[in-house]
Design brief:
This protein has about 130 residues and is α/β, with parallel strands linked by helices. The chain has helices spanning about 10-25, 35-45, 60-70, 90-100, 110-115; strands at about 5-10, 30-35, 50-55, 80-85, 100-105.
Length: about 130
């Protein structure tokens, strides 16, 4: 059964690539949010199985949106994966401290990204 995956990404090219991978190649259901506030609303409305969170977003950044979601019982156990150009020393740790379950640096390497996602597409989910 396909997972419902919320992609939170404000850049159209990145969003299109993620949709192609998740929906086209991995045959999962995709929901889209373009900023942190929309991500929170979409998450509460649609209850995704997995959230792919960009960290640099308009209106509310991904760190704040992740903290907000993870502070609720409904999303405490929902995997939120940071997909971000923030790839400097300490950025991964900062994303994990905000509540992200894992961090993947942009630009997206297709094979590495698919391998990164695989554990989260199984029923049990994953922790990284």
């Amino acid at each position: 059964m396909p997972k419902r995956i919320l992609i939170v990404e404000d850049e159209e090219d990145n969003r299109s690539l993620l949709i192609d991978i998740i929906e086209g190649m991995l045959a999962q259901e995709v929901l889209i949010a373009e900023d942190g506030l929309e991500a929170i609303l979409m998450a509460h409305e649609h209850r995704p199985d997995l959230i792919l969170m960009d960290l640099t977003l308009p209106k509310m950044d991904g760190w704040q949106a992740t903290r907000s979601l993870k502070s609720t019982e409904a999303f405490r156990n929902t995997p939120i994966l940071a997909i971000s150009a923030h790839a400097m020393v300490g950025d991964r740790e900062r994303a994990l401290e905000a509540g992200c379950d894992a961090h993947f640096a942009k630009p997206i390497d297709l094979d590495a990204f698919i391998e990164f996602l695989q554990p989260y597409l199984h029923e049990e989910g994953a922790k990284a």
